[in-house]
From TrEMBL:
It holds the Pfam family Bac_globin. The keyword Metal-binding applies. Signal peptide: none annotated. Keywords: Heme, Iron, Metal-binding, Transport. It comes from the Bacteria. This is Group III truncated hemoglobin. Heme binds at H43. The keyword Ligase does not apply. GO terms for molecular function: heme binding; metal ion binding; oxygen binding. It comes from Alteraurantiacibacter aquimixticola. InterPro entries: Globin-like_sf, Globin/Proto, Hemoglobin_trunc.
Length: 130
Protein backbone atom coordinates (compact mmCIF):
# COMPACT_ATOMS: atom_id res chain seq x y z
CA UNK A 1 0.00 0.00 0.00
CA UNK A 2 1.36 3.43 -0.92
CA UNK A 3 2.00 6.20 1.56
CA UNK A 4 -0.91 8.17 0.07
CA UNK A 5 -3.24 5.18 0.48
CA UNK A 6 -2.10 4.64 4.07
CA UNK A 7 -2.67 8.33 4.80
CA UNK A 8 -6.14 8.16 3.23
CA UNK A 9 -7.01 5.06 5.27
CA UNK A 10 -5.85 6.78 8.47
CA UNK A 11 -7.91 9.86 7.65
CA UNK A 12 -11.00 7.73 6.94
CA UNK A 13 -10.56 5.97 10.26
CA UNK A 14 -10.18 9.33 12.03
CA UNK A 15 -13.32 10.61 10.26
CA UNK A 16 -15.33 7.57 11.36
CA UNK A 17 -14.26 8.02 14.97
CA UNK A 18 -14.96 11.76 14.88
CA UNK A 19 -18.42 11.08 13.44
CA UNK A 20 -19.23 8.69 16.29
CA UNK A 21 -17.87 11.15 18.85
CA UNK A 22 -20.31 13.74 17.49
CA UNK A 23 -23.20 11.31 17.09
CA UNK A 24 -22.83 9.80 20.54
CA UNK A 25 -22.95 13.26 22.10
CA UNK A 26 -26.19 14.02 20.25
CA UNK A 27 -29.31 13.65 22.42
CA UNK A 28 -31.26 11.91 19.63
CA UNK A 29 -28.58 9.84 17.89
CA UNK A 30 -26.53 8.88 20.93
CA UNK A 31 -29.17 6.76 22.70
CA UNK A 32 -30.14 5.01 19.47
CA UNK A 33 -26.51 4.18 18.61
CA UNK A 34 -25.81 2.92 22.13
CA UNK A 35 -28.90 0.70 22.00
CA UNK A 36 -27.96 -0.77 18.59
CA UNK A 37 -24.17 -1.14 18.76
CA UNK A 38 -22.83 -3.70 21.21
CA UNK A 39 -19.12 -3.33 20.42
CA UNK A 40 -18.03 0.05 19.12
CA UNK A 41 -14.48 -1.01 18.22
CA UNK A 42 -15.84 -3.82 16.05
CA UNK A 43 -18.40 -1.43 14.56
CA UNK A 44 -15.71 1.16 13.78
CA UNK A 45 -13.83 -1.49 11.79
CA UNK A 46 -16.94 -2.30 9.74
CA UNK A 47 -17.61 1.38 9.06
CA UNK A 48 -13.93 1.98 8.23
CA UNK A 49 -14.19 -0.85 5.71
CA UNK A 50 -17.36 0.62 4.20
CA UNK A 51 -15.85 4.08 3.71
CA UNK A 52 -12.56 2.64 2.45
CA UNK A 53 -14.56 0.78 -0.19
CA UNK A 54 -16.74 3.81 -1.01
CA UNK A 55 -13.93 6.35 -1.21
CA UNK A 56 -10.87 4.37 -2.26
CA UNK A 57 -12.40 1.42 -4.09
CA UNK A 58 -10.93 -1.21 -1.77
CA UNK A 59 -12.58 -4.60 -1.40
CA UNK A 60 -12.60 -4.53 2.41
CA UNK A 61 -16.37 -4.13 2.79
CA UNK A 62 -17.96 -7.51 2.08
CA UNK A 63 -21.20 -7.21 4.06
CA UNK A 64 -23.86 -6.45 1.45
CA UNK A 65 -25.51 -3.06 1.27
CA UNK A 66 -25.39 -0.57 4.11
CA UNK A 67 -29.14 -0.16 3.82
CA UNK A 68 -29.84 -3.81 4.65
CA UNK A 69 -28.10 -3.35 8.01
CA UNK A 70 -30.26 -0.35 8.92
CA UNK A 71 -33.71 -1.35 7.67
CA UNK A 72 -34.89 -2.40 11.15
CA UNK A 73 -34.25 1.00 12.74
CA UNK A 74 -37.14 3.16 13.89
CA UNK A 75 -36.16 6.58 12.62
CA UNK A 76 -37.72 9.95 11.97
CA UNK A 77 -36.70 12.85 9.75
CA UNK A 78 -34.68 14.41 12.58
CA UNK A 79 -32.40 11.36 12.71
CA UNK A 80 -31.38 11.91 9.09
CA UNK A 81 -30.83 15.62 9.56
CA UNK A 82 -28.62 15.12 12.59
CA UNK A 83 -26.76 12.12 11.11
CA UNK A 84 -25.89 14.12 8.02
CA UNK A 85 -24.84 17.18 10.02
CA UNK A 86 -22.50 15.07 12.17
CA UNK A 87 -21.12 13.29 9.11
CA UNK A 88 -20.54 16.56 7.25
CA UNK A 89 -18.68 18.02 10.21
CA UNK A 90 -16.53 14.91 10.66
CA UNK A 91 -15.70 14.66 6.95
CA UNK A 92 -14.81 18.34 6.65
CA UNK A 93 -12.64 18.21 9.78
CA UNK A 94 -10.81 14.96 9.10
CA UNK A 95 -10.55 14.43 5.34
CA UNK A 96 -8.65 16.38 2.69
CA UNK A 97 -11.01 18.47 0.52
CA UNK A 98 -11.17 16.11 -2.47
CA UNK A 99 -11.89 13.06 -0.28
CA UNK A 100 -14.36 15.04 1.86
CA UNK A 101 -16.25 16.11 -1.25
CA UNK A 102 -16.50 12.50 -2.43
CA UNK A 103 -17.61 11.34 1.04
CA UNK A 104 -20.23 14.07 1.33
CA UNK A 105 -21.66 13.28 -2.08
CA UNK A 106 -21.98 9.61 -1.10
CA UNK A 107 -23.40 10.43 2.36
CA UNK A 108 -26.02 12.78 0.92
CA UNK A 109 -27.09 10.17 -1.60
CA UNK A 110 -27.28 7.50 1.12
CA UNK A 111 -29.30 9.83 3.36
CA UNK A 112 -31.83 10.46 0.61
CA UNK A 113 -32.07 6.75 -0.27
CA UNK A 114 -32.45 5.72 3.37
CA UNK A 115 -35.15 8.37 3.84
CA UNK A 116 -37.14 6.94 0.96
CA UNK A 117 -36.76 3.43 2.29
CA UNK A 118 -37.18 3.95 6.02
CA UNK A 119 -39.70 6.76 6.38
CA UNK A 120 -43.40 6.26 5.68
CA UNK A 121 -44.75 8.04 2.65
CA UNK A 122 -46.78 11.11 3.41
CA UNK A 123 -50.47 11.23 2.61
CA UNK A 124 -51.02 12.60 -0.93
CA UNK A 125 -52.15 16.22 -0.77
CA UNK A 126 -55.94 16.54 -0.73
CA UNK A 127 -56.63 12.82 -0.14
CA UNK A 128 -58.47 11.88 3.04
CA UNK A 129 -57.52 8.63 4.81
CA UNK A 130 -60.10 5.84 4.41
Amino acid sequence: MTTDALDSEARISAMVRRFYELALSDDLLGPMFRAEIADFEEHFTIVDDFWSHALLGTDRYQRGTAYSHHVHLKVEEAHFTRWLAAFEQAAEEMLPPELAEKALKRARHMTQSFRYGLLPLGQPHGVQPA
